[in-house]
Fold this protein.
Amino acid sequence: MKILVFEYITGGGMLGEAIPRSLAQEGELMLTALLRDLSDLPDVRTVVFRDARLPLSGRKFSGASWVFVDRKDDLECHLVGQIERCDAVWPIAPETGGILEHLCRRVEAAGKTLLTSPSDAVSLAASKLATVKRLQNKDVSAVSTYALSESIPLEFPRVVKPDDGVGCEGARIIETEWVWKAWAAEIDDLARYVVQPLIEGESLSLSALFAHGKARLLSCNRQRIVRSRGGFALRGCEVGAIRSGLAAYRALADRISEAMPELWGYAGVDLMQCEQGPRVLEINPRLTTSYAGLRQSLGINPAALVLELWRSGILPEFDAESGKPVEIGLET
């Protein structure tokens, strides 16, 4: 099986512009982990795109061939050709601006196997507002989220963030009415933003496999999120940090899968653990940073689980409680 692996940040998606170090680091973590897992499967070969500005690590991946891209115009041609030549595509890309959704639709239009959630699921999950409304309509507890055009029944402080932003990207804490008005006056397109209450609690994430209405929890992770420059920054995560009380998180993954049956394959769920229980912040229909620690934590090959799910249509059985905590650090 020949799989095209396209990690957007390191694979040429940002040619013509500077790559923020934090994005390059997270992209490299996810890409390296996925290639490591796929290279251990004897029947799999990979084709990997690479921004020519970025050096390769010294690690060799069995069965991997690299396509170096140094011009944004060439990226489009390479994508068309390689999607046609490969059996399946595994994209890792941000939802921002419809990037991941567009990639998924291209793969679907070409009639190739997509090893992530389909484009319809990505379109839904890309919007924090649409995701929360869907979850709340299905009685899944989620952080209240409002469009700026709505009446907002929230006190200060509040959090504003792009509706389709990834993680902490673009989020800002608004402390007072005066700061709220000043912020709104600076923003060109207020329709792109949503507002949420500033929730006190523990920042967690779930790593899970989904299969059209069913879910299998892989791990519950602690996110190291700090306040930085009026917003938030992710400093790392501890994969498999939460090992007791997993039944509640397993049930939450099940409820999410029922509310969003479009989800398929690996996806991450960001949430806040509050006194009242877990509240979902957003769904990431793709690999997340936590994926980089899954194999060491669980002692299994998570990419193999996804491929087996694709072949059989059956979610794997295993004991998530047996996992061990694995720290994934991100440089400041």
